[in-house]
Design goal:
DUF302, globular, about 130 residues, TT1751-like_sf, alpha+beta, TATA-Binding Protein
């Protein structure tokens, strides 16, 4: 499912397990995990309700730096992010920005196409890993 520059794929496991699997997969590919934010736990701390929701911030300077060399404003969207969340029907989703949409949003030049394509291919591999489970 793609909407407003976001790609969402279903996950067959809980939000926490989705993030655990994503972290393991990204680390196995040599990517850096910069932060994991549990929005649900943060909501609990202020006595507010929120379905399970976790954000992962990750990346690789070899992939992101060429994009910022082309157009520094893309730095607002880097490092890359993925959100695992549970909808109102109890289904779990993994959502991330479409790299092509980010390229369009920041008006990257054709010179950045190879880097954008590499990121897209990597995210497709991650999506495929969740489909196979």
């Amino acid at each position: 499912m793609a909407e407003n520059g976001l790609i969402s794929i279903p996950s067959p496991v809980s939000v926490r397990e989705t993030m655990d699997r994503l972290v393991a997969l990204l680390e196995s590919k040599g990517l850096t995990i910069f932060a994991r934010i549990d929005h649900g736990a943060n909501a609990d701390r202020v006595e507010m309700d929120l379905r399970p929701t976790e954000l992962l911030i990750f990346g690789n300077p070899r992939a992101g730096t060429p994009l910022m060399q082309d157009r520094q404003t893309i730095g607002i969207d880097l490092p890359f992010k993925a959100l695992a969340w549970e909808d109102e029907e109890g289904r779990v989703w993994l959502t991330y920005n479409d790299p092509a949409w980010l390229a369009q949003r920041h008006a990257l030049s054709a010179g950045a196409n190879a880097a954008v394509e590499a990121i897209r291919a990597g995210m497709n591999q991650i999506a495929d890993a969740f489909k196979d489970r």
